[in-house]
Design goal:
It is built from 35 helices and 20 strands. By secondary structure, it is of the alpha/beta class. Strands 10-7-11-12-14-13 form a six-stranded parallel beta sheet, sandwiched between helices. Helix 13 crosses helix 15 and helix 26 packs parallel to helix 30. The longest helix has about 35 residues. The structure holds thiamine diphosphate and magnesium ion. The site of thiamine diphosphate has 18 residues, from loops. Magnesium ion (MG) binds next to loops.
Length: about 800
């Protein structure tokens, strides 16, 4: 009978149990090192290549962390913990699942091939459960801090039980500590008093290009401790610790402590003989050193010198066990990049790979026969294989339940349109959100807002006044207590629904990402709404992309936007965000002109972000107050949600239309009015989403080729433009890059005169700026004259 780890725990004395456990973790670590190496080797050296390109993969980055990952996954992890895995250790994660029978051999064989294991762990593209996607270094680390905050939010709101709190854990490379977003996150985390967060640094002191600067030694400890983190350093393994206690050991310890990173790496690469030579040269004269060093043969000496904490199972498990509370904790686990491989320590080993001779040597050392390379337990002997399998299967990690479905939050059939003859889209957004805050519908409880220090100026204030700021510990509104009049009530408490962030857009997007993963992560759905000045989307763009890549669901509001932000000047007037909205997958971009469109789109967003095949939504809004229009019916709504509708349907065989998006609606309407006297039947098209129109159009083209179907219904753009005569002309206008609309000419081969902004703006009043940058009615009329009359 195979004994399981849990039965052994009762039967064996503690020390035997622990020794046994460590032996199994060590055996496991070797399998993970082997399988991750072989996965990369197979893809690069064995699988037939068709394009002559290197497939890639990172054997050295994997072996640097196999011990850490074995100890974490099969000793420390609890069922509710979630892990972001260092991108370049992705193959280790897949090897873990493979050994558990939860990843297929075919997928490993197809590593980095179409449909195979992804290069870097991916929530949406990998077949195994992945808690956090990683890839863009730094982001996968910081997101765990925000997810621990989201977990606290859910606990405070009674949606997750405190005893069910898991730890949000990042396995990170040391070069990730160079990314600025780490420090932005540290500051925010400190303010919010985060807990249940672990960052485990694979401290191999190598990045992609080189070994890292010695001057950073102990700096990270200081920085993290200042921000409220406990720092646990695992520098020496047990072998080293034992050696330091022997006669001469102290001098050896001192030598290791003073050895520059680069020298350590060189000696690691060269091995035992080189270590001996160098140690004798440097400290051979010191008492007892010669004898101490002579007591190890070359292999033993090499093993001793690289027996760093991050490769020592006893040290790792002890350290993880010791951090048995909720303090945010950083483990600095000293490691060797390429540990146990011939690549160990070489400064170019980041993308380096073992050659066939080297990997065959590794295989032989593992006792694996040729042909058995993919056998998860090959070379172990039946008993050990069965024991190891049972050990893995009995781990908490193996029993983690898969992510569940979260219940949908009902969305009212319509959102009331705010009153007012003149309104900006931003004001409308604030009022609609305020209505939701006041309502007793469930949707009001699930909305959680956030902003990077622009809560008031993006019109979230009314929502916040109504629902409060979220803080685990109550924070009084001191101004209010002092009876100083203010429109803002800033009392913070556990039931609050606004998470105020400092002015760091990376944090903002990571916060939205974590909130937007609440349903899959915690089984309870939140409806996150984040506001940011539209131009500063670019500041957090990679984090936005990161959130979308893992299909987090949120409503992003970029406001104010464009030249319409006249007084703020060129650096604040967003130009290319419509192109970002169009180009970003998993994010539907809308730009409304009027308040009723805002209401329609917000309702749609809350619905769409909950759909399995839905997405996040981005609304680009404006502070320009414009006259609202009278509608005779609701017929426009269906088309508005498809990306555009005719405000003035063109007459039959009309050869011209004005096409506009967003806040320049009054200019488009004025020009239409004046032109239609001479051009009866002139169309006026309101493009509410250049993104959806373009996506639909290109999907139809792609569908034709991909599915070899010729009967796919025309896209909405084709449908709209077919109201015009073939060869018609379009004047397009928006407060942003003209390219967002100019492509419409290609849909049916029409001539286009595109208006928009393609230079940095200046400060000025709106009339001056619209004239200067040709966004006024006159510019439209000129463009139309050129297109339609001079031809
Ligand atoms: C934002 C970003 N910039 C650049 C890269 C390219 N890159 C991949 S890994 C890496 C260095 C990784 O070093 P480290 O984090 O120390 O990992 P390890 O040494 O364990 O491989 C770089 C620069 C990236 N993945 N993401
Ligand atoms: Mg490194």
């Amino acid at each position: 009978m195979v004994e399981t780890a849990s039965t052994q725990k009762d039967d064996l004395p503690e020390s035997t149990d622990r020794a046994d456990r460590i032996a199994r973790l060590e055996a496991l670590e070797q399998r993970l090192r082997w399988l991750s190496s072989w996965t990369v080797h197979n893809a690069n050296h064995i699988r037939p290549k068709r394009d002559g390109l290197k497939v890639g993969g990172h054997q050295a980055s994997c072996s640097s962390m196999t011990a850490i990952m074995a100890a974490l996954y099969f000793h420390a992890l609890r069922p509710k913990d979630k892990v972001a895995v260092k991108p370049h250790a992705g193959p280790v994660l897949h090897a873990i699942h493979y050994m558990l029978g939860k990843q297929s051999r075919d997928n490993l064989i197809n590593f980095r091939g179409l449909g195979g294991v992804q290069s870097y762990p991916s929530r949406t593209k990998d077949s195994i459960p992945v808690d956090f996607s990683t890839g863009s270094v730094g982001l996968g680390v910081a997101v765990t801090a925000f997810s621990s905050l989201v977990q606290d939010y859910l606990i405070a709101h009674g949606r997750v039980q405190n005893e069910d709190a898991g730890r949000m854990i990042a396995l990170m490379g040391d070069a990730e500590l160079d990314e600025g977003n780490i420090y932005e996150c540290l500051i925010e985390g400190y303010k919010h008093n985060i807990r249940n967060c672990w960052w485990i640094v694979d401290y191999n002191r190598q990045s992609l290009d080189s070994t890292t600067a010695d001057r950073m030694f102990r700096r990270f400890d200081d920085i993290f401790e200042t921000c409220g983190w406990r720092v646990i350093t695992l520098k020496y393994g047990k072998l080293q610790q034992a050696a330091f206690k022997k006669p001469g050991g102290k001098a050896l310890e001192e030598w290791i402590d003073n050895c520059p990173n680069a020298d350590f790496a060189v000696l690691t690469y060269k091995g035992g003989e080189a270590w001996r030579e160098r140690l004798l040269a440097d400290i051979g004269g010191k008492t007892n050193i010669k004898k101490l060093i002579a007591s190890y043969d070359d292999d033993q000496l090499g093993a001793l010198m690289t027996n760093l904490g991050g490769h020592c199972m006893a040290s790792l498990t002890e350290a993880f066990d010791a951090a048995d509370d909720e303090l945010p904790t950083m483990f600095i686990a000293y490691t060797v990049k390429g540990f146990g491989l011939p690549l160990a320590g070489h400064k170019d080993n980041h993308s380096g790979m073992m050659n066939p001779t080297q990997i065959h040597g590794f295989r032989d050392r593992m006792g694996i026969s040729e042909g058995d390379e993919w056998e998860p337990y090959a070379g172990l002997g039946d008993n050990m294989a069965a024991e190891l399998k049972a050990f893995m299967e009995n781990s908490a990690f193996a029993k983690t339940s898969p992510e569940g479905e979260a219940d949908a939050v009902p969305v009212p059939a319509r959102f009331a349109v705010p009153d007012g003859d003149d309104l900006s889209t931003q004001a409308a957004f604030g009022k609609i959100l305020f209505d939701l805050a006041k309502s007793d519908e469930e949707i009001g409880n699930r909305i959680v807002t956030t902003a990077p220090d622009v809560t008031q100026t993006t019109n979230l204030g009314a929502f916040v006044n109504q629902r409060g700021l979220f803080r685990r510990q109550e924070v009084a509104d001191v101004f209010r207590q002092a009876k100083i009049p203010s429109a803002q009530k800033w009392a913070a408490h556990a039931a609050g629904q606004h998470i105020e962030l400092g002015i760091a857009e990376n944090n903002f997007f990571l916060m939205l990402t974590s909130l937007g993963l609440s349903a899959p992560h915690f089984g309870t759905r939140l409806l996150p709404v984040g506001t940011v000045y539209d131009p500063f989307i670019a500041r957090g763009l990679d984090a936005l992309n990161y959130g979308c890549y893992q299909d987090a669901r949120f409503l992003l509001v970029g406001t104010p936007s464009g030249l319409t932000l006249a007084g703020e000047g060129g650096a604040h007037q967003s130009i290319n965000t419509p192109l970002i909205g169009m180009g970003q997958p998993n994010l539907d971009f809308f730009e409304p002109a009027w308040a009723d469109e805002v209401a329609l789109m917000m309702r749609h967003a809350f619905d769409h972000m909950q759909k399995p095949d839905g997405s996040s939504v981005y609304l680009r809004l404006s502070t320009r107050s414009i006259a609202q229009i009278d509608r005779s019916d609701d017929a426009w709504e269906v088309d508005a949600l498809k990306g555009g509708y005719w405000l003035h349907q063109p007459g039959p065989e009309t050869e011209a239309a004005i096409v506009f998006t967003g806040a320049v609606a009054p200019e488009a309407m004025e020009a239409w009015k004046s032109l239609s006297e001479d051009m009866p039947g002139l169309g006026l098209l309101n493009v509410t989403s250049p993104d959806l129109l373009h996506r639909g159009w290109s999907a139809r083209r792609a569908g034709r080729w991909n599915n070899a179907q010729t009967d796919i219904a025309p896209s909405h753009a084709e449908h709209l433009l077919s109201a015009l005569a073939p060869g018609a002309g379009l004047v397009t206008i928006l407060d942003g890059s003209p390219g967002a609309l100019s492509w419409l000419g290609a849909v049916k081969g029409m001539r286009v005169s595109p208006l928009g902004t393609d230079r940095f703006g200046q400060t000025g009043d709106l009339l001056d700026l619209y004239r200067e940058y040709r966004l006024d009615a006159e510019a439209i009329i000129d463009a139309a004259a050129e297109l339609f009359l001079e031809n």
